[in-house]
Design goal:
Blueprint: H1 6-22, E1 28-45, E2 48-66, E3 69-76, H2 81-99, E4 116-121, H3 131-135, E5 143-159, E6 164-179, E7 185-192, H4 197-213, E8 224-230, H5 232-240, H6 249-253, H7 260-263, E9 275-278, E10 297-302, E11 305-306, H8 313-319, E12 335-337, H9 347-351, E13 354-367, E14 372-385, E15 388-392, E16 397-401, H10 402-408, E17 410-413, E18 418-421, E19 433-436, E20 439-446
Parallel strand pairs: 4-6, 8-13
Antiparallel strand pairs: 1-2, 1-5, 2-3, 5-6, 6-7, 8-20, 9-10, 9-12, 10-11, 13-14, 14-15, 14-16, 17-20, 18-19
Helix pairs in contact: 1-2
Length: about 450
Amino acid sequence: MTTVELGALEQSFNTVVEQLRSGLNPGEHFTLTLTSEQSQFTRFNHARVRQTGTVCDGILRLKLMHDQRSSYQDFPFTGEVDIDRQEAQQVLYALRQEVAQLPENPYLILPSGRETSRELHSGKLLATERVPSTILPAVADLDFTGIYSAGLVIRGYADSMGQKHWFATDTYSLDYSLFTDQGQAVKGTIAGSEWDQSAYTAKIEQSREQLNRLTKAAKPMQRGQYRTYLAPAAVAELVAMLSWGGVSEASYRQGGSCFAALRRGEKKLSPKFHLKENFTQGLVPRFNELGEVAPAELPLIVAGELVTLLISSKTAKEYSLNANGATHDEGLRSPELAIGDLPSDRILAELDTGLYVSNLHYLNWSDRPTGRITGMTRYACFWVENGEVVAPIENLRFDDSLYQFWGENLVALTNVQEFIPDVGTYEHRNLGGVWVPGMIVDNLTYTL
């Protein structure tokens, strides 16, 4: 797929949709989803450009449903009308032969409704040729490694019932690390739809300060419980765990949700804890793989009390519930954790003595029914005494329950949020991320 104007891509998509609708046999239904991008990727190593290039890609997924049976197939989307129409026709024919041989699915959800939407978010991204000259001067004296990803990302949906959604946005992300001569690292991310040079410079200066602190000898830590400040990047990792057996109604019904005890009223979270899905930023499309549109804001936990879980149409059908626009996996798409009242310049003073944790990784459930999560500290983490950073720490494993660190042990949340982007590019550039503050907790448990 070569670079194609946005209007031509939308026109080709619409043409394919109309052809599929007109070519259906009686009793057949379809859904068609589009994942497309025109992205620039620039990889840096030792503060030099090591690789750069562009990716223009598009994938259509056609799902055909008939007689309580369904199957799907992916095929390329080129933006060339004649090519896309011909490919869609061939795929429809192949699926028709396949569906007839498959067993019935009692929980198959057919498309319904007549909703349509069209969102276009134009950004102000760096021109391709300006990326090195804009990013590298600020880090020329550092061991700087990272990847800059930017460009147009498109998501589309249409079905046999007349629903159609089109979402296109310009976004960028810079995911980087700075290294000391001894191999310790500081990690940072910056993302958005408009490049902000002052924000980038400030972020690099903050990372420089942490890098300088890493040159001191690491302080060995004993296992135990420590008062801890978790920076937004670390909090984002914890929030991400909730998409894995946390906020899913199906998971709760099947006995696997970490929030089962909260729902039954057996345990509580802190009244400071507020979690919601917030689509008002326009970072991700509100429609799901069935064309259903989620509310602009959907409170999940308010003041520590569970309001609702994410309910897909399949779960709603299986358990006689009302769906709320969730995707089939019932995971978070645009989560936001509310701020508190702790000023950023008071973090160390409020922490007083304890651990400053910048990042976490390798998270997993150690006991999901009780909300216990385990993982490792990562990158620039420090021991703090009397409000002053004393020394970096060696890597630690934590293992604690969210009913503790988001419950009675939650001391404070910062009064500002940070956007932590989803920088995944495994099959395509991911959209969105999470808005989170930093937080201070008492007695976080470290086991190794």
